[in-house]
Amino acid sequence: MSEEQPLKDQSPEQFVREYLQQHRDFLEKNPDILELLEIPHHSGKAVSLVERQVGVMRDRNRQMGDKVDQMITSAKDNAVLFEKTNRLVLSLLAATDLNALVDALDQSLRDDFSTEFYSLILIDGAEVASATEEDSSTEMDRPTAVNRVTRDRASAEIGALMAAKQNLSGVISDAEIAFLFGDRSSAVGSVVAVPLGSGDQLCGILALGSSDEKFYSRNTGTLFIDYIGQLLEVLLPNHTA
After folding, report:
1. What are the pLDDT digits (tens) for 20-71?
2. Which CATH number characterizes residue 163's domain?
3. Whether 193 and 126 share a structural domain
4. pLDDT tens, position by position, 158-195
5. Are both 51 and 99 inside the same structural domain?
6. How far apart are the C-alpha atoms of 102 and 125, rounded to whole Å?
7. By CB neighbour count within 10 A (0-12 exposed, 13-18 middle, 19+ buried), where does 158 fall?
8. Are residues 121 and 174 located together in one domain of the fold?
9. Reduced to 3 states, what is the DSSP secondary structure of residue 18?
10. Is 18 in the same domain as 124?
11. Which residue(s) pair with 146 in the sheet?
12. Which of 20, 61, 158, 165 is the most exposed place for a label (fewest CB within 10 A)?
């Protein structure tokens, strides 16, 4: 039996399907057949296979165009983020003492990153003269909460944060928020916190807060705060020894 003859137990559709699979250039060699083929369209009208293929290609091109637009937008956003982060890094590296480092961090988080609240807890570190202690009139203008605490007190208040191997987001208790942000804790809806070091080398906790309860969650990207946390982990011991 030649391959052009269907087997007895084959339907015509099966035979045609297998034949075309074995002869993939058939339609290319027989363009007149290609022009006669029709495929039902979602609109209910019949269109030629060529038209259908053109429609598919147009849809794919449109999807590719959307993806390219998204990539361009992401690239621009990443460029802006890199510039802001680079500015913060240079400011932190240029700080000559702990207060200058805290001021650089405060200015960057407030002006460049529009952070509503942040808390920097220094564990067994040096004293920091915060702006709220020097001038009470600035208390509502700055989101700063910089405090020095003993390791024992920190363990009692935020022991879970200190023991964390990575940042914690969306799982911060009300008591921990109150300890981190003090008088302004009632306005904090969500938090992401990162330990600065681990074990006996833990020198502090950095936390960012938002009034939006959903702003920081387990699904929130934390690359930025992780990076800044690693940088502070290296720099803080130089100013608190």
Report:
1. 888 888 877 887 776 666 655 555 555 666 676 777 777 888 888 888 888 8
2. 3.30.450.40
3. yes
4. 888 888 888 888 778 889 999 998 888 889 998 999 99
5. no
6. 13
7. buried
8. yes
9. helix
10. no
11. 120
12. 165
Q: Is the dihedral of CA 47, 51, 53, 59 positive or negative?
A: negative
- List 148's β-bridge partners, or say none: 122
Run of H or E including 205: strand 204-210
Cα 91 to chain centroid, rounded:
24
Q: Which ranges constitute the DSSP H helices of the chain?
A: 12-22, 26-29, 31-36, 49-94, 98-107, 131-134, 151-163, 174-181, 223-240
Regarding beta strands 117-123 and 146-149, do their DSSP bridges make them parallel or antiparallel, or are they unpaired? Answer: parallel
Residues 99 and 53 in one domain: no
Tokens (6 digits) for 181? 């942000």
Amino acid at 22: Q
Please state the φ and ψ torsions of residue 228, each to the nearest 5 degrees.
-65, -35
Considering the domain architecture, whether residues 121 and 204 belong to the same structural domain is answered as yes
Domain assignment of residue 157, yes or no: yes
Q: Does the residue 134 lie in any domain?
A: yes
> Could you tell me the residue range of the domain that residue 131 belongs to?
95-240
Q: Are residues 51 and 101 in the same domain?
A: no
